[in-house]
Specification:
This protein has helices at about 20-35, 50-55, 70, 90-95, 105-110, 125-135, 150-160, 170-175, 200-210, 230-235, 285-300, 305-315, 345-350, 375-380, 390-400, 410-420, 445-455; strands at about 15-20, 35-40, 60-65, 75-80, 100, 115-120, 140-145, 165, 185, 220-225, 240-245, 255-260, 265, 275, 325-330, 330-335, 355-360, 380-385, 405, 425-430. It is an alpha/beta fold. About 50% of the residues are buried. It is an enzyme of class 6 (ligase).
């Protein structure tokens, strides 16, 4: 059975796709395949390779504008998660009671595959990729989509996977209503993107908990028992799904926990126990123990053999831009953590590095509260090099906690400053805590420019 009743949304008529990125173009191709009259509209300029795809499929599109009178004639709208709810066009659509949904919601109507859905403020890309690689290694016919990989809708149109691992953001969840996850995972919740949630953390928590809506007693809900915001959300949101918590602070009957001798124990009903030493994991740091626990629970639910799980968990190589080892030059280690776009991600990064650190911070501040970094900065950070246009908040936050805070004029300048400030045995860590859009196209562009500047030293 598909994950959404195929009668809930219009199954024909005019479908408008807002945004012509990976998810938008994939949606348009699937919608045309299903018989919709499709039109794609993007307020920006559409990348040339997406135009080629749309032209090949003979799908009409516009760029640099939204023709409102045409869009408001839609029977169904699928919008990019980057377009906020308070955008005037979205408000106008909802005023006319035209359904506005996410790509994931739209595509889920057309597949019977098992859907493993992973969200969280931090670690979701690592956990999603680890889970995908683990299932693939075990011989599962598995697809990777959501915030990562190829468009979910495009894969539904052209592939026949038995299971999908989907990285889901809160922005996607905001436009998901009837969708049901077979396995829903909430890794953690820390204040992030509060500009999209009226600067109220409880609104952001509620968005994350949309992950468990519509789940049944045959489904699974995997979550971190040690995370205070998740605990708060559990009091407001309920699901009939089987709860499988993971924790490093207590013992649980069903779920995953850490023993006093640092063994990960994973137990689910009607399955043999999984045990693995944390020192055997390929990914280091406390946060990665959590990520491995979550992936391990998914694997057990999917009936993977313990040996296959251990092989994947001991050999997995982390994704680009997330604590990515770049080079060791003159005895100084350079790490690219450009994907760390919030304060909690930076906390994890600082926690995982054992040497003195020259920290590269800054960019588009999303209302960050840097208080949680204070002790780690005091104890570990030799100097901070600021990147981005406006770094007044970073100076104000850390002027009493580190000896030196300097501004830079470009990524190349920032890397050169960091290399001069670092001493032999130190780590230069790019972990910005901010969005990248002032100096860069995205966090990947920021990370790539960091790596290029390091290799020029």
């Amino acid at each position: 059975m598909a994950n959404i009743s195929s009668t809930y949304y219009p199954q024909s008529g005019k479908l408008i796709v807002l945004g012509a990125g990976e998810s938008g173009v994939g949606t348009a191709i699937l919608a045309k395949q299903k018989g919709f009259d499709v039109f794609v509209s993007d307020m920006g300029m559409i990348a040339s390779h997406y135009k080629v795809q749309l032209d090949e499929e003979q799908i009409a599109y516009e760029e640099g504008t939204h023709t409102e009178e045409r869009i408001l004639l839609a029977d169904l709208v699928v919008k990019s998660p980057g377009i906020p709810e308070h955008a005037p066009l979205v408000i106008a659509l909802k005023a006319k009671h035209i359904p506005v949904i996410a790509e994931i919601e739209f595509a889920a109507q057309y597949t019977d595959a098992k859907l493993i859905c992973i969200t969280g403020s931090n670690g979701k890309s690592t956990t999603t990729m680890l889970t995908y690689e683990m299932l693939k290694h075990a011989g599962k016919h598995v697809g990777l989509a959501g915030n990562i990989g190829k468009s979910f809708a495009l894969q539904v149109a052209r592939e026949q996977f038995d299971v999908y691992v989907l990285e889901i953001s809160s922005f996607m969840l905001d436009d998901m209503f009837q969708f049901r996850a077979d396995i829903a995972v909430i890794l953690n919740i820390t204040a992030d993107h509060l500009d999209r949630y009226d600067y109220k953390v409880e609104n952001y928590v509620d968005s994350k908990f949309r992950m468990i809506q519509n789940q049944t007693k045959d489904d699974y809900f995997i979550y971190c028992l040690d995370d205070p915001q998740t605990a708060a959300g559990l009091k407001r949101h309920h699901t009939a799904a089987m709860h499988l918590p993971f924790t490093q602070e207590q013992k649980v009957e069903f779920g995953a926990y850490l023993t006093s001798i640092k063994d990960i124990i994973i137990n689910i009903p009607n399955s043999d126990t999984f045990t693995m030493r944390t020192e055997e994991l390929s990914l280091t740091g406390k946060h990665n123990v959590y990520n491995n626990m979550a992936s391990g629970l998914i694997a057990k639910v999917q009936e993977l053999r313990n040996q296959a799980m251990k092989e994947s968990m001991s050999s997995y190589v982390n994704i680009a831009h997330r604590l990515e080892q770049v080079a060791c030059i003159g005895g100084v280690n350079y790490i690219n953590d450009s994907k760390a776009t919030n304060v909690n991600s930076v906390w994890y990064a600082l926690e995982s590095v054992s040497t003195p650190i020259v920290l590269m911070l800054g960019g588009v501040d999303k209302g960050n509260d840097y208080e949680m970094l204070r002790d780690l900065v005091k104890n570990k950070v030799r100097a901070i090099v600021c990147i981005g246009k406006d770094n007044t908040a970073i100076h104000a936050a850390f002027e009493d906690d580190t000896e030196l805070i300097v501004n830079s004029s470009s990524m190349k300048d920032a890397v050169q400053l960091a290399s001069h400030l670092a001493q032999k045995g130190d780590t230069v860590l790019l972990s910005p805590a901010c969005a990248s859009f002032d100096w860069f196209k995205n966090y990947e562009d920021r990370g790539d420019k960091f790596k290029a500047a390091v290799m020029e030293l």
